[in-house]
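Hi R.,

Here's the chain you asked about this morning:
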Amino acid sequence: MSQKWLHIDSAHDVFDSTTETVAKRIPRNDPRFGISPTTKAR
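And the predicted structure, written out as tokens:
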């Protein structure tokens, strides 16, 4: 499990609009979301 998660506080004033924006950007491969895989040395 990755420890690199950032959280959006559900009590924040713009929680709904922020999570909606994030949800729309993830499938578009926005580089701000996700972690690029690295190759392991053999």
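The CA atoms of residues 2 and 37 lie 12 Å apart.

Let me know if you need anything else.
M.
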